[in-house]
Design goal:
Blueprint: E1 8-18, E2 21-27, E3 39-42, E4 45-53, E5 56-61, H1 63-68, E6 79-83, E7 103-113, E8 116-122, H2 125-128, E9 136-139, E10 142-149, E11 153-158, H3 160-165, E12 176-181, H4 183-193
Antiparallel strand pairs: 1-2, 1-6, 2-5, 3-4, 3-6, 4-5, 7-8, 7-12, 8-11, 9-10, 9-12, 10-11
Protein name: Riboflavin synthase
Organism: Solirubrobacter ginsenosidimutans
GO molecular function, one term: riboflavin synthase activity
Length: 194
């Protein structure tokens, strides 16, 4: 389990694509805290570290993760949001994030609003039904609060700290991002449907 509070902005150093999937190598200051078999969220996708050496960890990305996330489009040199799993003694400062990406949205618009930046995303309807104004959502693994919603999109307002410490600081229209909707909304829907 994660919180959506990005711990480091890593850099993809290698992408090895085969017919079986993709192996990513990521350089990060967090590598020293990882052991083989540990979970790490990469742009919100929970992956398993398979090797660690010289400040770089490797992780395999299976076809299911490639289909549901934007990791299929990641290239060498790409920055990625990284978070290690929540420890029982840690504060839950963001929201409950599983690292199970539900799908991909696309940046629609970016505009400044004082010192903040408002980013709007076009979202598939099957995911938008779980998004509520002032609710929680993870975008590329970043825990955010929805500031506005309409029939096809939602917006978030980003503070300078988020802009500086995450990949969302360079978000531009057309860029795909990973979405994980609030897991509680999915459980409520299932209960109500009974």
């Amino acid at each position: 389990m994660f919180t959506g509070l990005v711990a480091d902005l890593g850099t993809v150093t290698a992408v090895d694509s085969t017919q079986d999937g993709v192996r990513l190598n990521v350089k990060t200051s967090l590598a020293g805290e990882l052991s083989e078999g540990d979970s790490v969220a990469v742009n919100g996708v929970c992956l398993t570290a398979t090797a660690i050496a010289d400040g770089v960890f490797a992780a395999d990305v299976m076809h299911e993760s490639l289909r549901r996330s934007s990791l299929a489009e990641i290239g060498e040199g790409s920055p990625v949001n990284l978070e290690l799993p929540l420890r029982a003694s840690d504060r839950l400062g963001g929201h409950i994030v599983q690292g199970h990406v539900d799908g991909v949205a696309v940046v629609r618009e970016v505009r400044d609003d004082g010192f903040a930046r408002v980013v709007s995303f076009d979202v598939p309807s099957e995911l938008l039904r779980y998004v509520v104004e002032k609710g929680s959502i993870a975008v590329d693994g970043v825990s955010l609060t929805v500031s506005a919603i309409d029939e096809t999109s939602f917006s978030v307002s980003l503070i300078p700290e988020t802009l500086e410490r995450t990949t969302l600081g360079t978000a531009e229209p057309g860029r795909p991002v990973n979405l994980e909707v609030d897991v509680l909304a999915k459980y409520v829907e299932k209960l109500v449907a009974r």
